[in-house]
Amino acid sequence: MGRKEFNSYSTDWKPPTYTVDERGKVVDGYTPIGRSNWGRWGEDDVRGTANLITPELILRAAGLVKRGEVFSLGLPLAEDTPRFPARPPAKHYITQSGSDAVVGSPTSAGDLHGFVSNDDAIDLPLQNATQWDGLAHVQTEDTLYNGWWAGNITAARGAEIMGIGNMRESFIGRGVLLDLARHAGVDSLEPGFVIPPEMLDEAIAAQGVEVGTGDILLLRTGYLSRWWSLTTGAEKEAYFGNGEPGLGQGSIDWLADHDIAAIACDTVGLEVLPGEPDEVRKLPVHQALLVDLGLTIGELWDLDTLAEDCAKDGVWEFLLVAPPMYIPRAVASAINPIAIK
Amino acid sequence: MGRKEFNSYSTDWKPPTYTVDERGKVVDGYTPIGRSNWGRWGEDDVRGTANLITPELILRAAGLVKRGEVFSLGLPLAEDTPRFPARPPAKHYITQSGSDAVVGSPTSAGDLHGFVSNDDAIDLPLQNATQWDGLAHVQTEDTLYNGWWAGNITAARGAEIMGIGNMRESFIGRGVLLDLARHAGVDSLEPGFVIPPEMLDEAIAAQGVEVGTGDILLLRTGYLSRWWSLTTGAEKEAYFGNGEPGLGQGSIDWLADHDIAAIACDTVGLEVLPGEPDEVRKLPVHQALLVDLGLTIGELWDLDTLAEDCAKDGVWEFLLVAPPMYIPRAVASAINPIAIK
Amino acid sequence: MGRKEFNSYSTDWKPPTYTVDERGKVVDGYTPIGRSNWGRWGEDDVRGTANLITPELILRAAGLVKRGEVFSLGLPLAEDTPRFPARPPAKHYITQSGSDAVVGSPTSAGDLHGFVSNDDAIDLPLQNATQWDGLAHVQTEDTLYNGWWAGNITAARGAEIMGIGNMRESFIGRGVLLDLARHAGVDSLEPGFVIPPEMLDEAIAAQGVEVGTGDILLLRTGYLSRWWSLTTGAEKEAYFGNGEPGLGQGSIDWLADHDIAAIACDTVGLEVLPGEPDEVRKLPVHQALLVDLGLTIGELWDLDTLAEDCAKDGVWEFLLVAPPMYIPRAVASAINPIAIK
Amino acid sequence: MGRKEFNSYSTDWKPPTYTVDERGKVVDGYTPIGRSNWGRWGEDDVRGTANLITPELILRAAGLVKRGEVFSLGLPLAEDTPRFPARPPAKHYITQSGSDAVVGSPTSAGDLHGFVSNDDAIDLPLQNATQWDGLAHVQTEDTLYNGWWAGNITAARGAEIMGIGNMRESFIGRGVLLDLARHAGVDSLEPGFVIPPEMLDEAIAAQGVEVGTGDILLLRTGYLSRWWSLTTGAEKEAYFGNGEPGLGQGSIDWLADHDIAAIACDTVGLEVLPGEPDEVRKLPVHQALLVDLGLTIGELWDLDTLAEDCAKDGVWEFLLVAPPMYIPRAVASAINPIAIK
Fold first, then answer.
1. Mean pLDDT (whole number) for C187-214
2. Which among D22, C69, B84 has a CA at the least distance from the CA of A95?
3. For A200-212, what is each residue's pLDDT tens digit?
4. Taking Cα atoms as reference points, which of C332, C330, C334 lies closest to residue C158?
5. Side-chain half-sphere of A105: how many Cα atoms within 13 Å?
6. ipTM, 2 decimals?
7. Residue D86 has what pLDDT?
8. How far apart are the C-alpha atoms of C9 and C7, rounded to whole Å?
9. For testing the chain B interface, which of C20, C79, C116 should be mutated: the one with the most B CBs within 10 Å?
10. Average pLDDT over residues D305-312
11. CA B241 to chain centre
12. At C2, is the pLDDT very low, low, confident or very high (cuts 50, 70, 90)?
């Protein structure tokens, strides 16, 4: 097709000028324009900042469990759950139902104590509801994190390199929740509000918590809590159409400085929408985090109940267990993250 | 349809003689023929033995983390993963690929640092690969655990009662692995081998571990490890066709006595196949556990690496975090269970 | 569940009082309340008025081809095609793409003249876009056309009786188009407009055509043509939400009198929506046609281009070839009907 | 990925040396190595030899209807239908069942004459069972028929150029059946048997029929009829694994000379498998027909009943109505072709 500008396709095409080496990495292609973790964990690395979580940190995170309380941070994988509108809803379907049993019931025959079973399946867009964007989800030009070539991801074979299956034992460690809405004294930050890095520092201070190497940082904007009061299709369209609060370009260095392992939030995109006027790239936070830093992003996490609890006991850290589904060549994963306090 | 014998349908039908009350429970229908937990956690209970896991037990389980080592016990959700042959394979498909980016590449145009993304989805039978059988998976006659009516599970609405969504914060607690193959000194127990309850006691003693209230018990037969050497379609057909080692009717009381919260294994059905000659019902272990006891069953768990580690350090207990996907009205769930030692 | 009123479910349930005989037919259940074709083509009939199309009629219909012009009457099976909003859109997906070929291109290697292929699939609700409602689509109470039991249609096995596969050689014969919008001198009849049977007679007279035994009658209300100018989601929601023009209860006898083989239209439901105030049943036209008469209904047919042509040459009859997809146990089928003049 | 030989991928890649012009056509890429129809119907043509069917030919074909007998040539779109093993089976699923109606039955309530409906869907690989390979299905190197670029077919957008939707009014015309098995006096030609072009001429002469411009040619090898007696999975694997009878490179000129509009057969690939030893390309018949000639190929057509009828009445020509499903950007289509005699 050939692309002349963002998100527009033209018919003509000129082959790219880069080549791809034997490992599957782009030669003479894009290289990070800002902070970068390329090469930090070796040339063959496909896990990025997930590498920051060490057994020592996991051990310490387990020590954060003080009461044995469990919080699921996952939205329901259902047709009417909040999701990015361009993606289709999950479709749960039954392949053998209890109603089938009733119409073919052994209670109407001589077979005492009959075994009958039900079965089901789900057709699930992998970035539906609460999710991880894997590192194969976004590239800059044709290049993924650590210089891997986007052409390694095909319809025929999926993500042959950097599939989310590599993360099947990742994202288990210390979670820290920053409740930015509560800190700002509002129910929800407003669409278009750029969270300044100073606000992160202030919330950290106010909550009396620390954020450091290998942590999984959860940001609560409160914007998800607005979803539940929406009733009409038009309201739900506007919910996403109006944009959302989020991080701006100014936070990229902050995140790199703190060496966190992953970041998640209660919005569909983590970064502010509409974008800042001075952006030098489209979705600059996605590109900086996923491509340059190899920092996995979580979206649409349901943090409300957990935030209530943290506000009550004043403890904003916990053991977080949020591995992706083990789909070897997937680019993303729906998840049911578990926080344990 | 009307059913005259197991798994055979006839055309004629007589309505059942039971009725269903306002809560959705069968009146004058099946009641447990052996040990039972019906009513133990109230008439409205839909979680069964998952109720046995208390915050205290979770807190204690977190204390089992000594080294910070993580073990994923999930099989890959891929087309060629082991699965019960009557269910279709998972179908992972790409809806926007990196190869699409290359043919529409911004590197051939003026748009520097272009954002491009990939997307994917999976059509996933929910009992594919490593899974929980939810309590809505199996009924006896038309009655589910705690007397709920199977007719509450429809193609139109899924499991309106006892959907696996109720378990989204469950199955997080102390896991105990019994490596029965290792205990028997074999690579794998043989198909058709009935694991006697005494063998469970002996393995417990030999491993120097205890099993008690609220534990999640993992049984390793070794049979899954045979799968990986199979190459032809015929061999894989025979793998499941020949049956598998598993629990027999004699273990039901043992499981009830120990008040475990859930049980999982490395076979497709937990219970011995082909069944014992003196069975009074089809799949008696499924019926006793899921229907009478409300005890959730895990199948096709990949326990080999964990077992290696446990044999090495002599520690057979760990924090297990194995919540289902949060699909509100599902009867089962594919999972990626995480053990942390 | 038990149902106390239309489309509402309650938890309690009493078994029905009917039984089902060995053929799969309801005994002591619903029988037609008006005109009926039950038994007309035998007790085992599953094709209803499709039986009216004889080889003689097909032969005569082939004689209507005078110019060799072909008209596809099918809407695109695409995500944004008009469809009943309660049904999900079709999802076409590529499993091997041309872009995959480019990134794995043999032109970059020594293999001259390499074979490469593309593959795709569609997840298709069978009543998406242009469709036949099969006779298994609708029942009155628990009884389908000719007395068959609805319980013969299960999630586990599909429509074991009266699946649309029985129609795989049906709906090939003489088609007659009545352009009611043109006859009324409007672009489109209005939502809620009840087409009186007299209007059918008048259009027949004005168009100088006859309608008789075994014909497939196509009614054009013009309402579909309004769809194409809609742009916003809210407009499209209102399009279906406002109802549509269609047949009322008063046309049922007319259709029975004319002994047509099938009827199709350019609306989503054929019958007027919202329904007439004096209806004695919900969707009375569906119930009379599909259940009592065994008369298959076609919906969302794209008749505009054909109508233009018929208006031009004054010929409103043609050979129609509109078999369903051959899905043996389906209740409905998306179709691409072909008119040949 | 980069490809060094057929069907093998390597990690490294060099961009191709061709470019793509504004229309979406390859510049300095592959051009036909034998007979070619490129440019014959204009530079923008996407329908190839389907252009050969004129209204005059359709009119004449309608005149072949002498008895009004209809023959469906489609295999069932069901899980156990014959299909190329590398493609998954069709998955028909019910989203609202008759059994659901029974458990929520209005017959147990006061709502007389209740409307209840059933709904279903199918997840259908588009080359499942009886099908058309569209012209976007196969390319040589990166180039499709008429010089179109394969990169126009993406996971994100499907076949933006030459999608099978362009054919929605095609493949309606004169069909001619050549029963090669009957002609050879066998139930089925053997796997690996190369049908020589002389055999086509002899069958034409023996059947007393002519084949000419714009005809749709149906070849019956009898090999499909062997499928129905297979019972085990191993037998079905061998059925396709052993290859099949079919056309060889020697027939390509014959097909070009006769200027047929399309060709279909009762095997999975039309061309002989395993291929001839002296092949200069992989699947040379596919490449010559689909890429060089723009000649659409039909596969797995069920010709047995039609052949019986033709043998009985000695008439081997008929009106054939075989349009694809109207999926605008699909590369192929499952079909239910209709022959009318």
1. 98
2. B84
3. 999 999 999 999 9
4. C330
5. 27
6. 0.96
7. 83
8. 7
9. C20
10. 98
11. 20
12. low
Pairing verdict, β B216-220 and B172-179 = parallel
Q: To which residue do tokens 């040339």 refer?
A: A43
B142-165 confidence digits (pLDDT tens): 999 999 999 999 999 999 999 999
Token digits of residue B328? 């509100």
d(CA D1, CA A101): 50
Q: Cis peptide before C274, with omega less than 30 degrees from 0?
A: yes
Average pLDDT, chain D: 93
pLDDT, residue D11, reads 79
The whole-angstrom separation of Cα C244 and Cα C83 is 13
The beta-carbon neighbor of D99 closest among A24, A95, A97 is A97
Strand segments, DSSP code E, in A109-166 are: 115-117, 119-125, 131-133, 138-140, 153-154, 158-159
For B248, residues 6+ apart whose C-beta sits below 8 A from its C-beta are B194, B195, B196, B271, B272, B276, B285
Q: Residue D133's closest CA among D305, D270, D40, D304?
A: D270
CA–CA distance from D185 to each of D204, D209, D218, D221, D245 (Å)?
A: 15, 18, 18, 11, 15
Chain B: partners with 3+ C-beta pairs within 8 Å: A, C, D
- Cα–Cα distance, B332 to C21 (Å, whole number): 35
**How far apart, in Å, are the Cα atoms of C162 and each of A170, C138, C290, C296, C334?**
51, 11, 12, 12, 17
Give residue C108's pLDDT.
45
Residues 6+ apart with CB under 8 A from A247: A194, A195, A219, A255, A270, A271, A272, A285
Distance CA C15, CA C2 (A): 9
* Chain B residue numbers touching A74 (CB-CB < 8 A): 168, 325-326
D89 part of contact set with chain A, CB < 8 Å? no
Q: Are C330 and C338 within 8 A, CB to CB? A: no
Q: At what angle do helices B233-241 and D233-241 cross, to 10 degrees?
A: 170
Q: d(Cα D256, Cα B220) in Å, to the nearest integer? A: 64
Q: Which of B76, B99, B319 sits opposite A165 (nearest CB)?
A: B76
The partner residue sitting opposite A233, judged by closest CB among C100, C123, C233, is: C233
DSSP A100: H
* pLDDT tens digits for range A235-287: 888 999 999 999 999 999 999 999 999 999 999 999 999 999 988 788 999 99
What pLDDT, in 10s, does the model give residues B26-62? 999 999 988 999 999 999 999 999 999 999 999 999 9
Q: Note whether B155 contacts D100, CB cutoff 8 Å.
A: yes
D-facing residues of C in 116-145 (CB < 8 A) are: 116-127, 130, 136-142, 144
Quick check: helix, strand or coil at residue B298? strand
Among A residues 231-270, those touching chain B with beta carbons less than 8 Å apart: none
Please give the structure tokens belonging to residue C294: 């065994």
Dist CA C178 CA C264 (whole Å): 10
Residue D234, pLDDT > 90, answer no
Count the helices and strands in chain C (H runs, E runs).
Answer: 9, 19
> Which tokens go with C140?
């009155």
Residue B334, both tokens: 């594919």
Asked if B95 lies within 8 A of D156 by C-beta distance, the reply is: yes
The residue of chain D with its CA nearest to that of C321 is: D321
* Predicted pLDDT at B109: 44
Q: Which pair of structure tokens corresponds to residue C73?
A: 């009457």
Give pLDDT, residue A1: 46
D105 touches chain A (CB under 8 A): no
**């920053």: which residue's tokens?**
A178
| Kind and range of the H or E run holding A218 | strand A216-220
Which pLDDT value is given to residue D109? 44
Give all chains having 3 or more CB-to-CB distances under 8 Å with chain D.
A, B, C
Structure tokens at D250: 């020697």
Nearest to A247 by CA among A261, A259, A260, A264: A264
In this prediction, residue D110 carries a pLDDT of: 42
The answer to whether residues A138 and A164 touch, using CB atoms and an 8 Å cutoff, is no
